[in-house]
Amino acid sequence: MRLDVVTIFPEYLEPLNVSLVGKARARGQLNVHVHDLRSWTYDRHNTVDDTPYGGGPGMVMKTEPWGDALDTVLADGYETGSGAPALIVPTPSGRPFTQELAVELSERPWLVFTPARYEGIDRRVIDEYATRMPVYEVSIGDYVLAGGEAAVLVVTEAVARLLPGVLGNAESHRDDSFAPGAMANLLEGPIYTKPPAWRGREIPDVLLSGHHGKIARWRRDEALKRTAAHRPDLIERCEPKVFDKKDREM
Ligand code: ADE
Predict the structure, then answer these.
(1) pLDDT computed for residue 238 by the predictor
(2) What gap in Å lies between CA 163 and CA 206, rounded to an integer?
(3) Is 143 marked within a binding site?
(4) Whose alpha carbon is nearest atom 7 of ligand 1?
(5) Measured in angstroms, how far is the CA atom of residue 140 from the centroid of ligand 1?
(6) What is 2-160's CATH number, 3.40.1280.10, 1.10.357.10, 3.20.20.70, 3.40.50.300?
């Protein structure tokens, strides 16, 4: 998969050299290019923003640097046979970024990210590229960041770990909170490792029972309890058949 990021803070993307994403790059599973938007400014101050038409607070990112940057990045990707691009625009007014969307993006060959600072990018830039490629305007949560770079890191990590061969153990996705399957829409419950007792705290007996059926049931009960406590909205989204009599007594 190819990833391009155009930003006024290239150094903000340094974490893409570390850990899972860094290793995926080193192995050639991810081909990452970070570009400085100011390379496509031609005035003395390398201006990327201006005041909003219609008035109001803050500044708006200008059309020209973004247009020139994206044209250059897209031309390079097309030349090198990167496949069909999709534009990922992080914005608090985007659609929620979910595991389902992470899976969809992980199936694409090439993602181009446009993290914005200030109040955002002149709308015409997004409308222009939307005529040529899929555009995903995504929000990573109901809060406002100072810019989209942190959202790029979040989306990249969620997508990269889904790429074939990136996670050591292919099973590791299986029980993820939000993964499809029997536990769909339930948050993962608690997990434990050795030693069996620590500061007087013992792990639940069932986990030492060797009884796979009982362990699975316990894990599901714990997942249900945790989901009810932290995300009751997710319980409401579950199909009724997910629950049995024992659940309803909980
Ligand atoms: N930029 C600023 N806030 C954001 C958010 N919540 N999600 C994605 N991009 C953003």
Answers:
(1) 82
(2) 34
(3) yes
(4) 139
(5) 6
(6) 3.40.1280.10
